[in-house]
Design goal:
CATH architecture of the largest domain in chain A: Orthogonal Bundle
CATH superfamily of the largest domain in chain A: SLC41 divalent cation transporters, integral membrane domain
CATH class of the largest domain in chain A: Mainly Alpha
Distance between the termini of chain A: 70 Å
Helix content of chain A: 55-70%
Structural class of chain A: mainly alpha
Number of strands of chain A: 6
Strand content of chain A: 5-15%
Number of helices of chain A: 22
Strand order of the largest sheet of chain A: 1-2-3
Largest sheet of chain A: 3 strands, mixed
Number of domains of chain A: 3
Order of helices and strands of chain A: HHHHHHHHHHHEHEEHHEHEEHHHHHHH
Oligomer: homodimer
Shape of chain A: elongated
Chain lengths: 455, 455
């Protein structure tokens, strides 16, 4: 929208080396807007713009830039201005900093750590140690903390001191001397309470928390379920180690949805957005799956070869081969899509009602199969003849039922074996159904039209 | 997890009509947890449980129940306890209330409105009037408001009064007498500021807001971009009419992702979750697409009929028909998946770089096509012969390139014409590529193996 007007403005200021203009520009706009404008700039230009702002603003804008661009800036500063890089890394919020550092090689990280104060360094090492998809990897260690035996007045006073470098002060956690999580209180409750109330009376003790090794997707799901702004993360001894905030939960939800969408289309998940992913990586992520699917298609060809004499006797069969296979594949894709999304969104914790699912899908397969069989029969009759129409119809009904059931059950099976159900992509379901579809098509033809003596 | 233990507990209390036990149960647990436990209960049991709690708690739990269950409860109360229903509707938060009422028929709503106080009634009528997918349909009218010329001390005092029935008080909006949005201040800033500071000095004036008729997906995207807890919604004269909060934005993101996933699998989007959708509705949502796809398959059959004499001369061609068609369909599904997700997530506002996309996809199509052509050639040669292998290879290369380009460009075209790019489902791409694939396969065969005289 109005960014298209902002970009030339900023570029003009750069040409005129109007530092105060640039600084005002960055002060007035939300850092996310500035970051968006800067995305089209060269690395040197971005550094020049940031140079005109005060440190806090620089870091705020940096955190809103896409990760690959952040990396380019860091690599430039690593060579040319290590002092500034050191300030950036110290000032960044702990979760964004680790996101950035986790993209660098171990050697690069070790080279950068001496630039950072000791306390921050320990924080970085700890956060970097958590597995990529865990709560620990997205949490921030900058949360607001209070002891239990103080009054609301003192609590607000303490919060005022903590506020400037905490990710949120709207939820405050109460811990004991051993950092065990005792309770939680919202800023809303603090504001509403009488100043002399003691925190122990006010705080909620049934705190919903997640474990540091819980999956990110589970964490985001919990936050969504409870409408939380933040959720506390504890270790296996219920000691508070961090919080995950609503914005990170939203990013996780979207990343997981993207990953699932890509897998449904038989693309191995990408780390960055489509345009930020190098062509070679994309080729690799697509080629792997296309190779696997081609092997399945070769198996279908081998299967068709078994029936070569039938094909030669009933040459009309080729006409409806795509229809027969597509019907099964399409019905299977639909079932897999519905079940995979159901497992991802509605059924993260509870034991899923497999029997009910299987019954529903079986009924659907039979009904949809009958419907498509009618279409198949009509055109089979019209293009070839009545008996041939029946062959097509019977095959379609069976293949659709089979496709529906396997599309529904394979993702569930995948999960049972600890694999991601989303791996069951639409093309993979189609490829599996293809092989079986050929067997059904030819078996039905032999059964209804008579066996053909081999050559 | 531990809900499996809670359910029998609660059921036991119901059997023993232990009202105080039930009430304590609901007080201790988060309303979302109670709601989850209640999901497995009968409507009369749920009403009995809620009956033991105080009104505010009843409504909190109600709001966490799935919509179809909320509807069953409302319909029961409509017949048996209109007074309680009236209290519920008055106490519910404005956005959840409208979500519920929008599922009822106009007559039902008109029947319920007299149960509600006049002010709330106007609020409901206004919110119900916004289109389903708009910001207006998910916003709440319970936001915190301040005039501009007061001190921070007075502001906090006013906020304390507003807090109990506002969805959030962490972001506070500043308006003039005509309700025009002037600025915004966070509770964090208020807490940090000196009590005598005047709000005009503290508030941010470059407020990022959305319009009441903006699409929900855009609203959620803006909140995600700026990491907002809430975003103000204004009318076309910049008058504040509501706010959308982070939890609703998260729900929108997830709903849109589910809708896109379903469309990618050729299922018309569902309103409720898979298990909550009646079988008949599912059959309808799937049947429509299967019907369309079958018609496309019939077109493929008709096309194959044009080449009947070629099929009869080169009977081996049937072996590689599934492989040829699947290669194109799979490559096309991949491209469509990548582009649709890119358009949905990364490219909501900006003019997308179509030329760059087209060039990338063309290169990918040619590279992947060459790779798959090699597989096709090997097995064509192995199963039939060298020239036949070349026919398969040339076809695969062309079909994959065509599939990739159409998979990438059709979603973009769809959007150009104001349609949802996600309509370009994987099976639809495959169906389109099938028809063209047949033409290419036979044309290449005729070209390389010689024309066959008809009949």
């Amino acid at each position: 929208m109005y960014h298209s007007l902002l970009k030339p403005d900023l570029q003009q200021m750069l040409i005129e080396t109007d530092h105060s203009g640039v600084s005002e520009f960055c002060d007035v706009l939300h850092p996310a807007v500035t970051a968006e404008v800067l995305e089209g700039f060269e690395v040197v230009e971005i550094l020049e713009v940031l140079n005109s702002c005060e440190l806090l603003k620089q870091v705020q804008i940096l955190e809103f830039l896409p990760l690959p661009l952040q990396l380019s800036l860091v690599e430039d500063l690593e060579r040319n201005d290590r002092k500034r890089l050191s300030r950036w890394l110290e000032e960044m919020s702990s979760d964004d900093r680790v996101d950035l550092l986790s993209r660098l090689s171990d050697e690069q990280v070790e080279g950068l750590l001496p630039l950072i104060a000791q306390a921050e360094r320990n924080d970085i090492r700890k956060l970097l140690s958590f597995p990529e998809e865990s709560a620990g990897a997205i949490m921030t260690t900058e949360y607001a903390l209070l002891p239990e035996n103080i009054t609301v007045r003192d609590a607000l006073e303490k919060l005022r001191k903590q506020a400037p470098d905490r990710e949120t002060i709207y939820y405050v956690y109460v811990i004991d001397d051993g950092r065990h999580l005792l309770g939680f209180v919202s800023l809303r409750d603090l504001i509403l309470a009488k100043p002399e109330t003691v925190l122990t009376e006010l705080m909620k003790r049934d705190v919903i928390s997640v474990r540091v090794d819980d999956d990110q997707e589970f964490v985001a799901g919990e936050m969504q379920k409870y409408n939380f702004i933040a959720i506390p993360v504890v270790d296996n001894q219920n000691r508070l180690v961090g919080i995950v905030t609503h914005d990170d939960a939203m990013d996780v939800l979207e990343e997981e949805a993207t990953e699932d969408a890509h897998m449904a289309g038989a693309v191995a998940p990408l780390e960055d957005s489509y345009l930020e992913t190098p062509l070679f990586t994309l080729l690799h992520k697509r080629g792997i799956w296309l190779g696997i699917l081609s092997s399945a298609a070769v198996a279908t060809a081998a299967m068709l070869r078994q029936y070569e004499s039938v094909s030669e006797a009933y040459t009309w069969m080729i006409l409806f081969l795509p229809l027969v296979l597509a019907s099964g594949g399409n019905a299977g894709s639909q079932s897999a899509t519905l079940i995979i999304r159901f497992l991802a969104v509605d059924d993260q914790q509870t034991q899923s009602p497999h029997l009910r699912l299987a019954r529903r899908e079986l009924i659907m397969g039979l009904t949809l199969g009958t419907f498509l069989a009618l279409i198949g029969f009509s055109f089979g009759w019209m293009f070839v003849g009545k008996v041939e129409g029946i062959v097509v119809a019977v095959t379609v009904a069976m293949v659709v039922t089979l496709g529906t059931c396997s599309g529904a059950m394979l993702p569930i099976l995948f999960r049972k074996f600890g694999m991601d159900p989303a791996l069951m992509s639409n093309p993979l379901i189609a490829a599996i159904v293809d092989i079986l579809g050929v067997v059904i098509y030819y078996s039905v033809a032999i059964l209804l039209l008579g066996r053909v003596e081999p050559g």
